[in-house]
Design a protein that fits this description.
- By secondary structure, this protein is an alpha+beta fold.
- The protein has one domain: Roll (PH-domain like), CATH 2.30.29.30.
- Helix content is about 15%, strand content about 40%.
- The protein has two helices and 13 strands, in the order βββββββββααββββ.
- The strands form three sheets. Strands 4-3-2-1-9-8-7 form a seven-stranded antiparallel sheet, covered by helices on one side.
- A hairpin with a 3-residue loop joins strand 7 and strand 8.
- The longest helix is centred in the middle third of the chain and has 18 residues.
Length: about 160
């Protein structure tokens, strides 16, 4: 199993054993989360890296299209891409919460690093940015960007969520 080579200005946030869903069954390997991408390196002799740039994850309004399901042993994450493709990974149930939290934080950081607020003084921006949170919908598992204490609607399933 290979190691992920980090790019310029890229930092590793989380890594762990995972399976990647394929057309027929799944392939075991290692899943990596960085501040720029999700990358999967399969077990075996292949040097291929399957990667998802965080900027390519489908969003609709304030919701990230990231669905989850689980069973007694595993936890499935299905990520919708802007291209319409869906990519699925399986991690262990005891790691699911950390994957949800870290992916949400990485997506938020990626989005906020690309947000331009030219009319907002740095002091005001420093007060506003920490109030923005990424939470997961308790109904469908999609990520929702909300202001702390405010009400938002999941655009995936319509359920209200409070930041």
């Amino acid at each position: 199993m290979g190691n992920l080579q980090l790019r310029y200005n890229e930092r590793l946030i989380l890594s762990g054993l995972a399976n990647k869903w394929q057309k027929i069954g799944s392939k075991g390997g290692m899943l990596y989360l960085t501040n720029q991408r999700l990358a999967f390196i399969a077990n075996g002799f292949s040097s291929r890296i399957d990667e998802i740039p965080l900027s390519e994850i489908q969003t609709s309004g304030n919701t990230f299209h990231f669905k989850t399901s689980s069973n007694v042993i595993s936890f499935n994450m299905t990520i919708s891409m802007k291209s319409g493709e869906k990519v699925g990974f399986v991690v262990t149930r005891n790691q699911k919460d950390i994957w949800i939290e870290k992916i949400g934080q990485a997506i938020f950081e990626n989005i906020s690093s690309n947000i331009s607020m030219p009319d907002m003084p740095a002091e005001v921006r420093a007060q506003v940015m920490p109030q923005i949170k990424v939470i997961d919908c308790k109904s469908c598992g999609a990520f929702i960007v909300v202001m702390s204490g405010s009400l938002a609607k999941c655009e995936y399933c319509g359920r209200p969520a409070v930041g």
